[in-house]
Amino acid sequence: MKESTTKNQKVSPLKPGTKAPSFTLKTTPDQHVSLRDFLGRPVVLCFYPADWSPVCSDQLGLYAQLMSEFRKFDAELLGVSVDGVWSHLAFSKDRNLNFPLLSDFDPKGAISRTYGVFAERNGESARALFVIDPKGIIRWSYLSPDGVNPGADGILSALENLKSHD
Amino acid sequence: MIITPQNYQPPRLTLPVAEWDHVEGPSNARMVLVEYGDYQCPYCGAAYPIVKKVQKELGTRLRFVFRNFPITTSHPQAEWAAETAEAAAVQGRFWEMHDFLYENQASLSDHGFFANYARKLKLDVKRLEQEVAQHVHLGRVREDFMGGVKSGVNGTPTFFIGGARYDGYPGLGPLIAALETAEKG
Q1: What are the pLDDT digits (tens) for A43-64?
Q2: How far is residue B134 from each of residues B4, B67, B81, B128, B139, measured CA to CA in Å?
Q3: Check: CATH 3.40.50.10190 for B30-184?
Q4: What DSSP state is assigned to residue A14?
Q5: Mind telling me how many Å the CA of A64 is from chain B's nearest CA?
Q6: pLDDT tens per residue across span B56-68
Q7: ipTM of this complex prediction, to 2 decimal places
Q8: Residue A59's domain spans which residues?
Q9: Is B155 in contact with A69 (Cβ distance < 8 A)?
Q10: CB B65 within 8 A of CB B48
Q11: Which chain A residue's Cα is nearest to B2?
């Protein structure tokens, strides 16, 4: 436990009220996704350490199952890790993921850094979540302790809050 | 919100154990273990005999509750299995079917195999198969699932002990220790 505390010390996700930093990242070898593509809709940004986590029903698999719930809020879900696009493609196919995985690969972790969620010690993105409103403002952020899958309850309440403050 | 191991609080069960839950153990038991499970998930399959041992060890001190959490994007038979157990429940045989599904995870795609077992249990197999085909119990399974999501279920199996999500390793010793700690409050 001690080690993970040190590891996460410099990780400090951008706070609610901050403008979400823009980005354009590869999602397949020849396709890019930009945050501005989703202006006018809520975006759930899910940073995670690595493709191929060793559990079958992992965080991203759960989110794939919950796409219809996210869609009720017209929300888009984007996964981000430092893995390359080829890994993303294979991982996505293997787990039947139905949302884009973005590759924060070159320069490594650059976008994770702008969101304050790059873990220098292990060179991966931390497990962090952001809910961004249709105007591009971060409305909720959450950093999960190492090794704890945060589930989806926080995302769903944040989306519900967004909707009720419309 | 910045979470550290020091201030981290696991999420809590939002739906209290209620009448329509599948429950083993006395209602006044002070230890309550709730599992959100998927019949096709290998980790749930691995946890199944461990839960049995926990139940054996703690006897009437423990109440065990099972709720459905089929992750169908990874497990194509999970929804069918969950609805089959629910259809057996309507005929009073939930736990028999629940156990049989976990004990025969490798055969989940052979639906006839489970129909034969239902016959052995003297269930009305035609009714069971019809209810599953018409997704009569889909709503129930979905309610379990969404209740779980809102309580912070993050994969399967997810356990709740004393109403809080158990983030530890689901081994016999750790589960019993966590149940005993929760009992002392």
Answers
A1: 999 999 999 876 545 799 999 9
A2: 47, 21, 14, 10, 11
A3: no
A4: P
A5: 7
A6: 999 999 999 999 9
A7: 0.80
A8: 2-164
A9: no
A10: no
A11: A143
